[in-house]
Write a structure and sequence with these properties.
It is built from eleven helices and 16 strands. The protein is an alpha/beta fold. The protein folds into three domains: about 110 residues, no CATH class; about 160 residues, 3-Layer(aba) Sandwich (Rossmann fold); about 80 residues, Beta-grasp domain (Ubiquitin-like (UB roll)), CATH 3.10.20.30. Magnesium ion binds next to helix 3. The site of magnesium ion has 5 residues, from helix 3.
Length: about 375
């Protein structure tokens, strides 16, 4: 049986098993098995080598990347062309784009790479169409634009979410607050700081034994589901990525129809053909990317507000800032004078480990 067939078989078994006290252990086991099989799919997708993967290995440029994911012909390439001025073939037939087409946009001083991907369809994560490669690229992005055609049924949104979820991508979520400490012996010890209303001990034990975690302390600090527990165990293969739902082609529907669409969370309605509402889309992109702009101030001079050093919020210490400017800077570093919201005193003298905030001003003092 192939991995995909095994997944199908387990899904079928889960569908016909009723959830109750007696079956909880069995269902927990099946969920964990499923998660392990899906992991096999991810590793075969990102491993490359097999199939037509040419063009999917795009060099990363810029401080962050945004991947465009959507069904064929929803207007992904038209959007890339409008936003970045890059040329990616756009046409009215499906699967126009067959490879990753990169473009770059400069927004608020930050260079952001945008990746136009081929259209995906249901079954993408098990290898249909160019699905595997699209998904492998999406996993590396800092933000995903899920592009939807407002004329197509919203079921497309769910299909895409399911495809991405299936390979360990978690959209607009934070990792579950569950701490697992492996031990040499002593069995599984479960503690919780909030009541667990969605998960019972049998399910926890089933999942733990499926992962051969026979001795461990697990502390639940959120009302977790069995999927959250599996995510916590599999944390290394999970990707928590923000997503924006781009509702394209609003030029082709009425105002009344448009109002209904605004109910979708994290959405921006646009028309890439007419260039409508692209400002809102970029503003939302900026917000979700959570970038940190740091202005340099040469000693005794005014800060340079035109060319910020842009950092990602997960890597924005003074050391990261120095490395962005020049590799040798850290070796010569004495102290940094920082003005802005990351410090109490203006300026405050800090070391390499200080974490910067958006729009701070920094002067590096050398030895
Ligand atoms: N009315 C309208 N049509 C649009 C809009 N954006 C794109 N289109 C049309 O939709 C068709 C498909 O556009 P593409 O940009 O090639 O779509 P894609 O998502 O890149 O398609 P694939 O590469 O096949 O996945 C083209 O005929 C575009 O002119 C829009 O905002 N409004
Ligand atoms: Mg395209």
């Amino acid at each position: 049986m192939s991995t995909v067939e095994k997944i199908k078989a387990i899904e079928a078994e889960m569908a016909k098993t009723q959830k109750n006290k007696a079956t909880n252990f069995h269902l927990g086991q099946l969920k964990a098995k499923l998660a392990k099989l899906r992991k096999e799919l991810i590793s075969s997708a990102s491993g490359g080598g097999s199939g037509p993967g040419i063009g999917f290995d795009v060099a990363k440029t810029g401080v962050a990347s945004v991947g465009y994911v959507g069904f064929p012909s929803v207007g992904k390439s038209t959007l890339l062309n409008k936003l970045t001025g890059t040329h990616s073939e756009a046409a009215e037939y499906e699967f126009t784009t067959l490879t990753t087409v990169p473009g770059v946009i400069k927004y608020k001083g930050a260079k952001i790479q945008m990746l136009d991907l081929p259209g995906i369809i249901e079954g993408a994560n098990s290898g249909r169409g160019r699905g595997k490669q699209v998904i492998a690229v999406s996993r590396t992005c800092n933000l995903i634009f899920i592009v939807l055609d407002v004329n197509k049924p919203l079921i497309h949104k769910e299909i895409i979410e399911k495809e991405l979820e299936g390979v360990g991508i978690r959209l607009n979520k934070v990792p579950p607050d569950i701490i697992i400490k492996k031990k040499e012996r002593g069995g599984v010890n479960i503690t919780n700081t909030v009541p667990l209303t969605r998960l019972d001990k049998d399910e926890i034990r089933a999942v733990m034994s499926e992962y051969r975690l026979n001795s461990a302390d697990i502390a639940f600090r959120c009302d977790a589901t069995v999927d959250d527990l599996i995510d916590a165990i599999e944390i290394k293969t999970r990707r928590y990525i923000p997503a924006v739902y781009v509702l394209n082609k609003i030029d082709s529907i009425s105002i009344e129809e448009l109002e209904l669409l605004y109910k979708i969370e994290n959405c921006v309605p646009i028309s890439s053909k007419e260039g409508w509402n692209l400002d809102d889309l970029l503003e939302m992109m900026w917000d979700r990317l959570n970038l940190v702009r740091v202005y340099t101030k040469p000693k005794g001079k005014l800060p340079d507000f035109d060319e910020p050093v842009v950092l990602r919020s997960d890597r924005c210490s003074i050391e990261d800032f120095c490395n962005q400017i020049h590799k040798s800077l850290v070796a010569d570093f004495k102290t940094a004078a920082v003005y802005g919201s990351s410090v109490k005193h203006q300026p405050q003298y800090v070391g390499l480990s200080h974490i910067l905030k958006d729009e701070d001003v920094v002067t590096i003092l050398k030895k």
